[in-house]
Amino acid sequence: MSPLSAFLILATVLVTAFISGIFGLAGGLILMAVLTSLLPLAAAMVMHGTVQMVSNGYRAFRLRGHINWQVFRRYALGSAFAMAILFWLAWRPEKQVVYFLISTIAVFVWIPRSWIRLDARLPGQAEFAGFVAQGLNTLAGVAGPLVQLFFIRTDMTRQAIVATEATTQTLSHLVKIVFWSLPVVTAAGIDGLPPAWLILAAIPLSMTGTTLGGKVLDAMNDVNFKAWMKWLVTAVCAYMLVRALG
């Protein structure tokens, strides 16, 4: 890996962790776009999963008093079913498919609330979110915007939304790391994974960005938070669609 590529990855980790610290998502989308441009897909998935697991885990720890554990347990149940199916199928998509899967998320942001009610607190919806989001996260690398749809329309505060989603995504990224690293290690050993020094350097940057983003989150109000969320997700997904068609 060239020094320039390493610098770009580490700089992106810091910036995207800051974005995710504010909105709880979108940062992961941007990071995935950069990593897939600079690394083989499997290595990008493992690198992305490690950084995002640390970032989400640290964010969840900072906001641990706001986590809705009942919603998380129900989400984890749906996630477990998705894990079983994914490891049984053992199918891993190519990059263009990954880009397209990510780009489709923007459609759901603009569905009128009167058409469909997505609310993680409703019976069965947290389980459904866990099943679908775990599948998308594992295959496409990210699922934050999809998970957010089940939280953004609840009456939960912005801190509760970010904290609970961060907890669910910590679990999802852990599964993704295992899913993508197994074939790499089997075929090429640990040399096929991202360099350990790069991951170690990325971790404190991710935590720093998360901390700074959290300070901005505290200064926002719930109305602005939800309005900015919709446009941010749409912009990132539009970019990923361009890459899928390119």
Structural class: mainly alpha
What number of structural domains do the residues give?
1
Order of helices and strands: HHHHHHHHHHH
Separation of the first and last Cα atoms: 25 Å
Q: Please, what is the average pLDDT?
A: 85
Q: Could you tell me the radius of gyration in angstroms?
A: 17 Å
Largest sheet: none
Low-confidence stretches: none
Number of strands: 0
Please work out how many helical segments DSSP would assign: 11
Query: What is the beta-strand fraction?
Result: under 5%
How much helical structure, as a percent, in the residues? Answer: over 70%
Q: Tell me, what's the shape?
A: globular
Summarize the structure.
The chain is an all-alpha fold and 246 residues long.
Polypeptide structure, described:
- This protein is mostly helical.
- It has one domain.
- It has helices spanning 3-23, 27-38, 41-62, 69-89, 95-103, 105-109, 125-140, 144-152, 158-188, 196-219, 222-245.
- The model has no long low-confidence stretch (mean pLDDT 85).
Describe the secondary-structure layout:
Blueprint lengths: L2 H21 L3 H12 L2 H22 L6 H21 L5 H9 L1 H5 L15 H16 L3 H9 L5 H31 L7 H24 L2 H24 L1
Q: What labels would you give this structure?
A:
single chain, 246 residues, mainly alpha
